[in-house]
Amino acid sequence: MEQLLLTLGFGNTVVAQKVVAILSPNSSPMKRVKDEAKQEKRLLDVTHGRKTRAVIITESNHVILSSIQFETLSSRFESLMTREKE
Prior knowledge:
By secondary structure, the protein is an alpha+beta fold. It is built from two helices and six strands. The chain has one domain (about 5-85).
């Protein structure tokens, strides 16, 4: 089975099949999720110092912060998953 990579920006990718959720970072629950992940060393920040615009949660329970817009990542993800089904 071919692994499809979701581009998160700045040369960072994640295996699309391992993504559980792509979420907006602005809600209080997301802030709590980020804080808990950081405390448990499960947080990956790939924003390169820019504003966090999307939070990706993987099946290994890692939390990835990206500076790519939530809508853009969701669209890329959906496109990859559609291609996988073909």
